[in-house]
Design goal:
Blueprint: H1 2-13, H2 21-48, E1 60-63, E2 66-69, E3 87-90, H3 94-105, E4 110-114, H4 118-127, E5 132-134, H5 137-140, E6 146-149, H6 153-162, E7 170-173, E8 192-198, H7 205-211, E9 216-220, H8 223-235, E10 239-242, H9 248-273, H10 280-301, H11 303-306, H12 310-313, H13 316-329, H14 334-350, H15 356-367
Parallel strand pairs: 3-4, 3-6, 4-5, 6-7, 7-8, 9-10
Antiparallel strand pairs: 1-2, 8-9
Helix pairs in contact: 1-8, 3-7, 9-10, 13-15, 14-15
């Protein structure tokens, strides 16, 4: 719950003050107004001297580093006090689409989407009718207050370097690996950067939307922005957590094993089951119930207590027979089998169910040629 995450943030910092979005927005507006007054004073001094530091071409005007035609509209979206911020999502792939739909259904205004893929852009707008569509991310910034970069990790940095936020805006990415610092090039005075990573497999829209309910969502940002992102996480049914500094790579590695790692394991099981003449559907029908039972046991009993199989009994002969069968029918699976059985032996040793002799026999069987 948001209360617990914000409480933890206060305890960690000692002086953390959490504000609602409208209060934080007012602070940012006041800060921006002060900066604007200072800038205006400097510009007046320059104008009195007849100096134009960055002249725009005839018929055009500038907003920070961006130059536009004079008739270009700049709505600079701004929510009223107490209202949710207007969200813009860059990237209309699986993650961007699911977040857009989830936020829209939760009552958060989704004002714009940016994608160079016209089909993805229109698909997004078919699900979220309030969103204006843009081909380029730069054009979206004027329409929103909170920019969400739902793009591949390698794209986040270069994209952030092209964007320029206005005072009072915030930008976050959905990467499970990168920190908020990668977004710093997009910031200006009075803007904020963070991260918002739902721990969900976005393979299918409907399944992803269902999975968001109860899902862990890692948020990053200063205390003020973290509070806003925690609100957003809870609005779409998630449970926000704030990661300890420096832990994000480990967090993401565990997430990859929880999703892609399990998928790779299932593919290995499929390959071995093919030796028996089973296709993929047959392999899943036979072995998925056992996998699901194991997960249920781990949840109820703990990981160590859920371990079963030859590693718990010291059955070195069984392990040797497995390796011989894999060598004959599924040699590409041997590396996965060995790695997981090595881990199983370590777990069994840790819970005290193996004698030293049994452990040695198992490790010898695993290391030997089948």
């Amino acid at each position: 719950m948001r209360g617990s995450i914000l409480r933890a943030a206060r305890e960690a910092s000692g002086t953390c003050t959490v504000r609602a979005w409208d209060e934080g927005d007012a602070i940012l507006r006041a800060r921006a107004e002060r900066r604007a007054e200072e800038d205006a004073e400097r510009l007046r001094a320059l104008e009195e001297q007849g100096i134009d530091l960055d002249p725009a071409a005839s018929g055009r005007h500038r907003h920070e580093d961006l130059e536009h035609p004079d008739d270009h509209a700049h709505p600079h979206a701004h929510s009223a006090p107490g209202e949710r911020p207007v969200v813009g999502i860059v990237g209309a792939g699986a993650v961007g689409l699911a977040l857009g739909v989830a936020l829209d259904r939760a009552g958060w205004p989704v004002g714009a989407v940016a994608s160079r893929d016209p089909e993805r852009r229109e698909r997004f707008r078919s699900h979220v009718g309030s969103a204006r569509g843009f081909a380029e991310a730069e054009a979206l910034v004027d329409d929103v207050e909170l920019v969400i970069l739902a793009v591949p990790d390698d794209v986040v940095g270069p994209l952030a370097a092209r964007l320029r936020l206005y005072a009072g805006q915030a930008i976050v990415h959905t990467s499970g690996l990168l920190g908020a610092d990668v977004l710093l090039p997009s910031l200006s005075a009075g803007s904020q950067a963070g991260a918002f990573h739902p721990l969900v497999a976005f393979a299918d829209l409907d399944r992803a939307l269902a999975a968001l309910h109860g899902a862990t969502i890692a948020v990053e940002g200063d205390d003020e922005l973290a509070a806003h992102l925690a609100d957003m996480a809870e609005a779409i049914g998630g449970s926000p957590v704030r990661l300890a500094p420096g832990s994000k790579a480990a967090y993401h590695a565990a997430a990859v094993l929880s999703a892609g790692g399990v998928t790779a394991l299932l593919d290995t099981i499929r390959e071995i089951a093919a030796v028996m003449g089973l296709d993929e559907a047959g392999a899943l029908r036979i072995y998925l119930p056992l996998l699901e039972q194991t997960v249920a046991n781990a949840r109820a009993l703990g990981i160590s207590a859920a371990l079963t199989g030859p590693a718990t009994r010291g059955d070195a002969g069984t392990v040797a027979a497995h390796l011989a069968a894999l060598e004959a029918g599924a040699p590409a699976a041997i590396g996965v089998y060995r790695a997981l059985l090595e881990r199983s032996v370590s777990i069994a040793e840790g819970r005290g169910t193996l004698s030293p002799d049994a452990s040695e026999r198992l490790r010898t069987a695993l290391a030997g040629d089948p």
